[in-house]
Write a structure and sequence with these properties.
Blueprint lengths: L9 E4 L5 H12 L3 E6 L3 H13 L3 E6 L5 H15 L4 E4 L14 H29 L2 E6 L3 H4 L5 H21 L4 E8 L12 H6 L9 H12 L11 E4 L7
Parallel strand pairs: 1-2, 1-4, 2-3, 4-5, 5-6, 6-7
Bound molecules: NADP nicotinamide-adenine-dinucleotide phosphate.
NADP nicotinamide-adenine-dinucleotide phosphate binds next to helix 1 and strand 2.
Length: 249
């Protein structure tokens, strides 16, 4: 028997052409949601994700948009609602790094990381809020990072953006709690994707009690749980770490 707890729901996953977003889109699609697969430039990869969902019996379509661009985000959300007639789950996943020590960090490197990783979350959340408030139902899941909790030398821009996402998650969770909308964050540790492929993993692995990098599918499992009903219906404003035990507060 297929387990399809999200049948009849629509999910928008930002940055779903690769890595964690790809795994999240496929996981939500397998759980029965119709998935809008957002991407920035990788049309072919987004189409592969759509194909993977459709071939497993689900529904999906690709939508290009730069989620750091206000009018592109408004258009993206309008397209999803026109096409699917609802928007029940938003996964704010799109993100980039532009690492460097603070003394050498260019303003542009700071700004582009804040624009996508933090302002993008604000723009997408604001754009879906009206629909979710009217429905009195919604799940918003923001992908932050353990680096937003601990800080990391060479990632002041990224850590600031991800810490901002935690504050944003808790504030919007409080604003929306009485309206049937939950807002939570998932904080991955080091996950095997394009973002981490050039890192020297020796030192990193030593800091992870479980001794391995995580997989995108393991992050997708946490997102899928937070999207599920009734399992996660009473959870809001939380940060769920998926990090092999790397950071224990
Ligand atoms: P990734 O493999 O580099 O994939 C990034 C995704 O974001 C791609 O689908 C990319 O689309 C999309 N994207 C980039 N710029 C965009 C824009 N302006 N508008 C819309 N989409 C855009 O990254 P990842 O490792 O899967 O990371 C996903 C999320 O998890 C990020 O928020 C990241 O900060 C967070 N995270 C990752 C790790 C890790 O270890 N990998 C750890 C903690 C947190 P295109 O393919 O079209 O470029």
């Amino acid at each position: 028997m297929n387990y399809s707890p999200l049948v009849g729901q629509t999910a928008l996953v930002t940055g779903a052409s690769r890595g964690i977003g790809r795994a999240v889109a496929i996981s939500l699609g397998k759980a029965g949601a119709e998935v809008a697969v957002n991407y920035s430039s990788s049309l072919e990869k987004a189409e592969e994700v759509v194909e993977a969902i459709i071939s497993s019996g689900g529904k999906a379509y690709p939508l290009q948009a730069n989620v750091a661009d206000e009018s592109a985000v408004d258009e993206l959300v309008k397209n999803v609602i026109t096409r699917s007639q609802s928007l029940d789950i938003l996964v704010n996943n799109a993100g980039i790094t532009s690492d460097g020590l603070l003394m050498r960090m260019k303003t542009m490197e700071w700004q582009k990381v804040i624009d996508l990783n933090l302002s993008g979350v604000f723009l997408c959340t604001r754009a879906v809020a009206r629909t979710m408030l009217k429905q009195r139902r919604g799940r918003i899941i923001n992908i932050t990072s353990v680096v937003g909790l601990t800080g990391n030398a060479g990632q002041a821009n990224y850590a600031a953006a991800k810490a901002g996402v935690v504050g944003f998650t808790r504030s919007t969770a409080k604003e929306f709690a009485s309206r049937g909308i939950t807002v939570n964050a998932v904080a991955p540790g080091f996950i095997n994707t394009d973002m981490t492929k050039d890192l020297d993993t020796a030192g990193i692995l030593a800091a992870i009690p479980m001794g391995t990098l995580g997989t995108p599918e393991q992050v997708a499992g946490a997102v899928n749980f937070l999207a599920s009903d009734p399992a996660a219906a009473y959870i809001t404003g939380q940060v769920l770490q998926v990090d092999g035990g790397m950071v224990m507060a």
